[in-house]
Write a structure and sequence with these properties.
Strand order of the largest sheet: 11-6-1-2-3-12
Number of helices: 12
Number of strands: 14
Oligomer: single chain
Structural class: alpha+beta
Radius of gyration: 39 Å
Length: 306
């Protein structure tokens, strides 16, 4: 039989025609078998796991989620430590801050005292000029009836520099402040707008003085201190704690020793961990002239008792 009419025509002999029909039947049968097999295997694959992973995996291998990384638990800590911080300029006391780190409920407590605070008839500034930081500590311990573990004495510029070394501090200022002191032993000025502001070390020192001496707003002064602690005692500074401690000791007069620092590593870990959620408590001083009122004093004693 001829297929094409032009040059190169192809012919099939009659003998091949029968063979071709047989081939078609065989191919058709093969296709049917292959299709049936694929359908059968597909059905089984849905019912049973024929994956290579399943084939090669041990029978007793339990599935695991590699993203579930167990976090190391925080160390167990307890107890309380009281601190007194004196910031001065050429031995003129600017302000005093009482601090407590309370590890029974993981929190900070703060009370800002103005330099003119009277203790047994003498102001803190007078005691400081005549007898130094340790006598101020003793006077405040007598006033509160509780033990202060550590003292920290710093020049205002050294305090401001170390404050800045601990990183940025953002704080919401309630209303614009524009103030310049006159006739003081150490004059200062504050110019800051209302709203969220970045506060550097010099701003911090001047704001504490302004809140304590001009406004007598010790709620605001304490809040400034507590917010700075919560922001600056953080995981980033934990990673460079040795360097920061060395710089702190170089800048301050303190009875905090290297041994104290070493023994306090677990406490520092808890305070700086992002999971902690450290609390904050404000012990607000109220004054009649320069004397802390009895009602206010009793509340402060309650905060700093150990």
């Amino acid at each position: 039989m001829r297929i094409f009419k032009n040059r190169g025509d192809i012919y099939f002999s009659k003998t091949n025609k029968k063979r071709s029909a047989e081939q078609k039947i065989l191919i058709t049968a093969l296709v049917v078998i292959v299709v049936f097999t694929l359908v059968f295997v597909t059905v089984l694959a849905f019912k049973y796991d024929f994956s290579a992973k399943k084939f090669f995996a041990p029978d007793d291998l339990e599935p695991s989620n590699i993203t579930d990384v167990q976090e190391e638990p925080l160390p167990e800590v307890s107890g309380k430590s009281n601190f007194i911080v004196l910031v001065h300029s050429d031995e003129n006391l600017l302000f005093t801050i009482l601090l407590q780190t309370d590890f029974d409920n993981v929190s900070y407590k703060a009370a800002v005292l103005k330099a003119d605070t009277l203790c047994d008839g003498n102001s803190l500034s007078e005691i400081y000029i005549k007898n130094g930081v340790q006598n101020v500590q003793t006077a405040v311990e007598t006033l509160l009836g509780t033990e202060i573990d550590y003292y920290i004495e710093m020049q205002s510029n050294d305090f401001a520099d170390f404050f800045d070394e601990l990183g940025e501090f953002h704080y919401p200022i309630a209303s614009e402040i524009s103030f310049r002191s006159k006739g003081e032993e150490v004059n200062y000025s504050v110019r800051i707008k209302a709203g969220e502001q970045e506060i550097n070390g010099s701003d911090f020192v001047n704001l504490i003085r302004y809140y304590a001496d001009q406004e007598e707003n010790f709620t605001a002064a304490n809040d400034l201190v507590l917010n700075s602690l919560q922001q600056k005692i953080n995981s980033e500074n934990q990673e460079k704690k040795e360097k920061l401690f060395n710089n702190f000791v170089a800048a301050a007069n303190t009875n905090i020793t290297v041994r104290d620092f070493s023994l306090g590593q677990d406490r520092l870990t808890v305070l700086t961990d992002d999971r902690t959620g450290t609390g904050a408590y404000s012990a607000v001083c109220e004054y009649e002239k320069n004397t802390i009122t009895q009602q206010s004093l009793q509340k402060i004693k309650g905060y700093f008792v150990k």
